[in-house]
Design a protein that fits this description.
Maltoporin, Chain A; 2 helices; mainly beta; 679 residues; Immunoglobulin-like; 62% strand; 48 strands; five-stranded mixed sheet
Length: 679
Amino acid sequence: MWFLAFTVSGKVLSEGKPVEGAVVFVKEVGIRSYTDKDGGFRLNLKGGEYTFVVQALGYKVERERIGIFSDTSINFNLKPLEYTITEIEVSPKTKSAFESAQPKFLEALPFVGDQDVGYFISIAPGVVPVYGLAYFSVRGSSPFENLITFDNIPLYNAFSYYGMYTPINLDIVGGVEFLRGGFTPEVGNLSGALINFKSAEGESLRYTARLSRTNAGFSAVGKNWTFSSRVGLFAPLKYWRRVGIRLGDISGKFNFGSTLRGLSISYIGNISDNVYLNDYRALYYRAEVLNGGFSVVGRYYLGKVFLKPKLVFSTSNFRSWDSSRKDPFKPEIQAKNVYSRFDEITLRNDLDFYFFSIGSEVRFYASRLNKDSLKREKDGYFFGNYVKYRFENRNILSEFGFRIDKFEGLMWRFSPSGFFKYYFNSSNALKVQGGIYRQFITSLYAFPPQYFFYTPVTRSEILSYQVIAGGERIFPWGIAEINFFEKYYPKFVYVDGNLEEKIGVMNSFGFDAWVRKESKVPVPLTADLSYTFMISRIRLSDNSEFLPTPWDVNHAINGTFSFHLMRDQYEVILGIAISYLVGRPYRGYLSHYRTPFYGEVYIQDTTNRLKLPPYSRFDLFMRAPIPIKLAGIRFDISFSVINLFPNKRITFDPTNPDADFANLTAAYPISSIVLRAVF
């Protein structure tokens, strides 16, 4: 029985009431769980004695030593802080103060149409939005260097509603893990950022229904499964241009393993972007995205050795139809179809022994693209090994090691990396991290983002040297962090619109700063303020100079302020969000001339030499309960106003040379109302 894992479950309470979003951290093995709305949590541990550290915003940290020798139920009772937060514990496992977000924070952010977990990523320090909430640059990396996962299962086409949202409904998200680069050796074939959506779990079944002006949704969270669906409400409507729109997505996750000790099986599925546009003037567009996958994960203890074998399969499919009718009253249609598929199978085993970790993995890729008359089929494999040493004491946390990787058609690659953090005391710390990072998967990058097509490279690799150095300080009222970074890419590869691989050199550097204030008086307040300075330049093989990248936004300021007001048993949430972005570079027109047969001919610049105007925004959010009790159903209503002080976001319109510029957002406030029922 010594090699079996036992189930540890229970609740975190305070004065008899559940505490949502509390962290239950097991110090000896470095794993954690987050409590749901009922205060419940669940862990799997080998038999032995462990130190449990429980903490939550506004409560004193609770520590308790407990022996686990069978399935165990534990309840923790937290004591609230009387005035302000006087103790904020940064776990020794934490490499950055800004690493994760819990549902209580995510639910207080403004929204357009419906709340989305992607908003948390878009306002994070070091992040520059490129398009919508699903595509962004992190510290100068390109958008297709990021990897989005759902319970560690990759989602390569992680967008919904034409890129405006992420495909995972907020109601089934239990937390977000956000690593902004500078990985330690266990992370391979990735050079940008890693975002992992954690599925919500509950000891009891919970249903949530949403209704807004733009869409309706339903979600359910069980002990081992989640399900969510959304459908747009545009379809029955016809605007003055007689354009019909239909949107929808379905996603879910199932986990099996409660009866199989040490083994868990998970399956996720996502169908999103069932977008349908129909214009009587001869336009027709439809797009569908299908993401799916499963994982089989084992956790076995062999004495002092911890084995974690894993099998992961992921598939991402995209299909669109773009048609033009010669005559709206005739059936002839000239269709332009796009179909892409990217499959990934990963076999991996990790071994932890005292302070050492050793791992090996093999990945198989298959990609297919059919875009108009262009076709690309490419299969490949990736074989990687890593060794990592971990050392920590009262003042030092360090992880360093190396990887040895092999990709089809390339020689073996050696990639060292590491992390070092020094705690001067319980409030101040300095850190440095970085290494050599390689990525063998790239993407066809075009605008709009439905043409993101992932494929193994054939000619080279994405190679980057990264250094990140900074510090953090914990105050009685919150925490502050600053990081300086530089990313140099001697080899940067992407696929252009003609399916040709472009190789160049890219360099990005700058710094980001982040401050969080947390207080209980005079009102419960959580305030986040971040600033990012960044310069990103690229030189392709056909250029002789470094030019701005499409995501070269030099200055970005984001701030969120949320107030949680309690009266009787009801909670009212007020949120404010501010943002300021310097305009992105764009490719303008160099000149134009008139011909007798083709009329005006415009010559577009091939470089991003021009800058769009800056953009600022002020958003408001409010959620209030509806004091109606109906068969145990709790109702609340959310109201959000985006762009309260009307400010146009300008973008370059390459399809209309006469206009040059177009408004990406309306020059007036956009309001959204959501009615929610939880039962």
